[in-house]
Amino acid sequence: MSVAFAGNSTTGPSRDAGPLRVMVVDDSVVIRGLISRWIGAEHDMEVAASLRTGLEAVNQLERINPDVAVLDIEMPELDGISALPQLLAKKRDLVIIMASTLTRRNAEISFKALSLGAADYIPKPESTREASAADIFHHDLIQKIRHLGARLRRRPTVASPPLAPATPAPAARAPAVVRPAAPAPALHAPSSGALSTRPFSAHAPKVLLIGSSTGGPQALMALVTELGPVIDRFPVLITQHMPPTFTTILAEHLARASRKPAAEAVDGEPVKPGRIYLAPGGKHMRVVRSGADAAIALDDGPAVNFCKPAVDPLFTSAIDIWHGNILSVILTGMGSDGMRGGKDIVAAGGNVIAQDEASSVVWGMPGAAANAGICAAILPLNQIGAKVNRLFAGDRS
Predict the structure, then answer these.
(1) What does the buried/exposed string (b/e) look like for 2-13 if buried means 16 or more CB atoms within 10 Å of the residue's CB?
(2) Which sequence positions are flagged as catalytic?
(3) Which among 336, 337, 330, 387 is positioned nearest to 360, based on CA atoms?
(4) Distance separating alpha carbons of residues 192 and 187, to the nearest angstrom
(5) Buried b / exposed e along 120-158 (16+ C-beta atoms within 10 A)
(6) Which residues contact 4 (CB under 8 A, 6 or more apart)?
(7) 33-65 pLDDT per residue, tens
(8) Cβ distance 151 to 139 under 8 Å?
């Protein structure tokens, strides 16, 4: 069983009044009841319908007219991945968030759903009786509904299509690459162009650090395809807010997209050029000194900024190794993770680039960095790769 939230596009005027209408679709009466209670307790959202199958959702969509759909993956009659394109065909501006238990199959289905137009995904706990797991699920679910729903309501009336389906993998059993998303509408009225930036420091970067969250898998896929010259000569370390198993699949996608070695980082392994190191789900990734070199240190400590892995621990730990020779990039995501670590990097003489508001799915993390005044550049996603390549090639402008 898995829960999904439907993807986003627009056909009509933005809606400004009233609570967000949420359609919950799951064949488990327990999960439906739990999610419905959580939504009902929020002042800015309401349960528009609670349904058992994807077929019911498709057949009743026009009558219910929800803003957001929470869509389970495994259901009788019509499963979530089959219902997803039918729902979006009927209502292009429906926000769909996929939710699934932490199995490899469900992780792969969730990534496929992103390529078909789902807005996001969320992992469901194996048992809602585990208090900590249920609390995290509750927090993340409500935040995703709220932020993605707010983005929908602030959209202009111009329609934007969902992602094109991923192309089949050329090798047998290789996972399909999640295609980069088209530039997404902003969560707030565009303001990043008016924000001030600081000059790039004169320190030559020796490592690339990237942090991302909501919308991050699509953004990362687009970015790494352009970073071949950097990856060949310098290490690249990425923290994406994502649970275990999902990061395993993401690493495989990054390897295929970049055509470079990419894998979940392993505790104690040396950090070398030519590789992409991805923080594994459920662990913070830091770097530590190992003799004259840098090595990966995985940390099973408490969540930071409600996240595990979190971006701040990676950013801050890198300063002890590379000092001011760090270039960090903060991509789309909810919250402010990466901003504090970015401040430390700038104070040490390094640089921060943030994704701009118009191309971000949610302008939380990059917006926090931009509003803190620590960014040397605030760029659309499709311009970040070229800028990173120039900086590592010696351009300091």
Answers:
(1) bbbbbbbbbeee
(2) 213, 241, 337
(3) 330
(4) 12
(5) bbbbbbeeeeeeeebebbbebbbbbbbbbbbbbeebeee
(6) 25, 69, 70, 71, 72, 73, 80, 84, 96, 97, 98, 99, 100, 110, 113, 118, 121
(7) 999 999 999 999 999 999 999 999 999 999 999
(8) no
